[in-house]
Amino acid sequence: MMNLCVYARKVVLVLCCFTAIYPAISQKKTFDYSFYGFVRGDFYVNSRANIEGVDGLFYLYPKDILLDAKGEDLNATANGSFYTFTTRLGMDMKGPDIGTAKSSAKIETDFGGTNNMNFMLRVRQAYLKLAWEKSSLLLGQTWHPMFGEVAPNILNLSTGSPFQPFNRSPQINYQLEAGKIKFIASALYQLIYLTQGPDGKSEKYQKDRALPELFLGADFKNGDFLFGGGVDMISVRPRLQSVVADKTYKVDERANGFSYDLHAKYTQSAFQIAGKTIIAENQTHNTMISGFGVTSIDELTGKQEYVPFRHSTSWLNLIFGKKYQGGIFAGYTKNLGTSKKLIDENKLYGAGLDIDQFVNISLCAKYVLPHWNLGLEYTNSTAWYGKTDLANGKVKDTHDVTNHRLECVFMYFF
Questions:
Q1: Is the peptide bond before 96 cis (omega within 30 degrees of 0)?
Q2: What is the three-class DSSP state of 286?
Q3: How far lies 161's CA from each of 10, 78, 164, 401, in Å?
């Protein structure tokens, strides 16, 4: 009898194990995954100090002149380094189908999250997606729709920023295809790429507003040609309270911004030309020269009114060749000012608001093999710094500052 009980328990255990394993075996019939990524190394040298990120790999624009007691420019110092922490690993997953929708997901990471030279694993993309015949729904973190399908092909990790929007955000993204036109609607929240405000960079400005950033756009694609555009709206709450004469008041403040972009790309064989032009308002979370300022302050409560700076920014990129590839990138940004008068130069919040215009020219040469890339890129960038005119938000009394950058990149793809 004892042996029979032991045998019965063994049978039950086997059945339980089989029951637990069977769904996984069945799932594999409709589930697939694949890994991808690359090993990347960047060596760079600059002729002066710069506004940058990721320990200098994410180059933006040169810093203004900073004079010491003897009248020498403290920022006119060459710098450079060699890093490999932008090495990337990702996984694409497909299936199973959910009704008539094909399901998929993506996880992508690198070591580009840095804090005092500690290189940290970070989430680049993480989302799930449902795709029907003519539409799709994406939930999770991926590229901002203003980054889009048209982006510069250059070696610099910034991918054309601050001329090109650069941002990966949590979002709800819906796309609908109607013939050769694809419509895009997205509601976005901030996590890594943040708005500049009274307390520096923070996601709280949008979180306290309780309203996502909204984007509507459309792309027309016909063979090798793509043309599109979009409208972006962001509204943030810079402060929740103010202090006047040692008294604290609850305030309801809003800083809004509307941005518009047009982009196009033509690709054929060993040649590609692409470009984008943007009228941008309050786009610091997209790593652009942008921001807002205070136009008035209520004498009783201290409540502030805000106006966004408006910037015009454009870029053009030409790529030619296959195995031996050459490229030219040109970018231009101009401060168009504000629609209202500003009250204080110390109440301006953003990035590069003391720059009147910024020009960037990059020349790139690459040796391209099936799993290897080796590239060399020279960048000449000049920013015209000056003083903000509070009457209109434009920059006056300018002087130019130039940085020369040389960058060498090697990549192994898998």
A1: yes
A2: helix
A3: 64, 22, 5, 18
In whole angstroms, how far apart are CA 177 and each of 94, 214, 222, 232, 369? 21, 19, 13, 20, 34
292 burial type by CB count under 10 A (0-12 exposed, 13-18 middle, 19+ buried): buried
- Give the C-alpha separation, 285 to 263, whole Å: 20
C-alpha pair distances (Å), 98 with each of 31, 130, 133, 174: 12, 8, 13, 17
**17: part of which helix (H) or strand (E)?**
helix 2-28
State the residue for tokens 């047009």. 262
In the structure encoding, which two tokens stand for residue 161, read together? 């920023």
Q: What is the pTM of this model?
A: 0.89
Q: Are 106 and 48 in contact, with CB atoms under 8 Å apart?
A: no
pLDDT in tens, 318-374: 999 999 999 999 999 999 999 999 999 999 999 999 999 999 999 999 999 999 999
The reported pLDDT for the residue numbered 361 is 98
From 252, 351, 233, select the one nearest 292 (Cα to Cα).
351
Q: Which helix (H) or strand (E) holds 4?
A: helix 2-28
CB distance 262 to 253 below 8 Å: no
What are the pLDDT digits (tens) for 271-327?
999 999 999 999 999 999 999 999 999 999 999 999 999 999 999 999 999 999 999
